[in-house]
Predict the 3D structure of the following.
Amino acid sequence: MSLKPLKKSDLGKDWISKRRDRRIRIRPEYHLIVTEGEKTEPLYFQKFKEEINKKYRERIHFSIIGAGENTVSLFETARRYADKSVNGYKHVWIVYDTDCFPRENVDEVPLLCKKYSTEKQQYHAIWSNQCIELWYLLHFELLQSDLHRSRYTAKLSSHLKKLKAGAYKKNRADMFTLLKPFVKAALKNARKLALINGEKPPSLSAPGTNVHEIVERLFPYIT
């Protein structure tokens, strides 16, 4: 089954039943985003949600949870939330950094997502090696050096200051707004990095991230 959203021309439409002369609404698509970080990632995706809800509140619904857990335990938490859902989540996104977690745990999450995905409910491992700030940086440049996560702050600050947006700090609530004009560049750079990493698992894709997969899925709703 295709993971692509409906064509822009079809979004928000009411469809007419051939059997009855009455309108039938498309069932909303439910997304659950569970993140390792309790603030940085939820703040970013919350703005994504707000942008989409301006146009398609009835078409796509979000729940965003900053779980404060990592890798396998984060997946297990996401699965518990999904199991409790009354409406049922079509897509469950597990967003985490590799940091210094055990390699086997980092690489286990995509395997668990594949194992528990069904036609009705699909799990997605969304990882960054080493941290979500790599995705932010790809909006400005194609980084191919394996930098320690502590060095991303200075590089991001340099780019943000050129935009007269001040220095980068964790938990900035305006990162989505600041980065939005450069999303196409980020997607392009992330795809290039993915090609460079090839079939390497997340733990060995350094630097590497697949945050672009969730952004590719959702961005058409706000453009």
Remarks:
- Helices lie at 40-56, 71-84, 103-116, 133-137, 152-162, 175-179, 183-197, 211-218.
